[in-house]
Amino acid sequence: MKTGLPEGESPGGTAKRTMRQIRLAAELETIYSQLFLPLVRRACWKHGLSKEDARDIVQDAFVIAVVKLKADANGRAWLASTVDHLAVNFRRKGARHARLEAQFLRPMAEDVMGIYSAELESFE
Predict the structure, then answer these.
(1) 50 near 44, Cβ under 8 Å?
(2) pLDDT, tens digit (0-9, with 9 covering 90-100), for 31-87
(3) CA 37 to CA 12: how far, in whole Å?
(4) DSSP conformation letters of 7-29
(5) What is the chain's mean pLDDT, rounded?
(6) 10 Å Cβ neighbour count for 43?
(7) For residues 7 and 99, what is the distance between their CA atoms, to the nearest angstrom?
(8) Where are the beta strands (DSSP E) in the chain?
(9) Residues whose CB is less than 8 angstroms from the CB of residue 75 and which lie 6 or more positions away in sequence, other chains included
(10) What are the boundaries of each domain within the chain?
């Protein structure tokens, strides 16, 4: 007999799944408010990052934590330290990109603009 439920699942199983989803949502909200937001604020305040960049860095820290965080470690301290390291690397990378851009791209752009302005003058 067809009940509209996945094969092998009873109506009581649906209620259990719904309750697990509600508990998971509550746990995620707790993690978000107690860990994620304070780490975003920390990255903004301590490292001068925009909210968007800070959110990206904190998300990266959580992904790294899934792989590297040991069960007996202080998760809050580990995440804060990881966010600090990622933020420093992010700022360092931005400074390096700016320096390389100034060194290589701007002189090339000036050369190109010089060529085009010479060609425009020849048309006048």
Answers:
(1) yes
(2) 888 899 999 999 999 999 999 999 999 999 988 988 898 888 888 999 999 999 999
(3) 36
(4) TT--HHHHHHHHHHHHHHHHHHH
(5) 82
(6) 26
(7) 60
(8) none
(9) 65, 69
(10) 11-91
Question: Token match 């190109």: residue?
Answer: 112
More confident residue, 59 or 29: 59
Q: How far apart are the first and last CA of the chain?
A: 86
Give the C-alpha separation, 42 to 61, whole Å: 13
- Cα(65)–Cα(104) distance, rounded to whole angstroms? 37
**Alpha carbon separation from 62 to 32, 66, 113 (Å, rounded):** 11, 6, 45
Give how far Cα 91 sits from Cα of 27, 43, 67, 82, Å.
32, 11, 24, 14
| Rounded CA separation 90/105 (Å) | 21
